[in-house]
Write the structure tokens for this entry.
Amino acid sequence: MAKEVVRVTKIEITAGKATPAPPVGTALGPMGINLQEFCSAFNEATKDKMGDVVPAEITVYDDRTFSFVLKTPPTPFLIKKFAKIEKGSAKGANQVVATLTEADLKKIAEIKLPDLNAYSIEQAMKIVAGTARNMGVAIKGINDQELQEQGAEAAKEEAEMAKREAELAEMEQEAKEMSEASKEVEVVGEETEAETSETETENNNEESKEN
């Protein structure tokens, strides 16, 4: 009798370093499978990929046994690995943080091809190049000049925006100071009126006493 599939889930783990602790325990613990058994099997299957982040698609059956299929490392991970950077640009294509060669691009595409919606290495390269672009990683000789120019234009616009914001903040500060100064004048005026009224009252009282 065939086993019934209870659940299929995906998890990304560093090759050869799976342990029952989170994130493995958090993701798989509630499924009731033997965590240590999974970790041992995963580490053995990925020992030749040490250092890479390896996604695993895990199928859990009704008798709490499991099977898993390894996938290729995430494209952003491979791009950062080949570009030797820890993270991509926070501004996307508007800031170039690294450059890959076309040979690097092809190597990444070859690795990712089994898991991409592509039928040729050329299509895979275009997909990878698009991801790299969004991370601020240019491809030398293909789009590096374009992205550099785009980044320079974006930086110019950002500087102009910062200047306008600074000018606006300065105007708001001046308006605030003028408003506060106006309030001080009003308060002083009120105090003067109050003092004048008090003086008149005292004078009237003195006149009454003399009469």
Summary: Residues 8 and 59 are 4 Å apart (CA to CA).
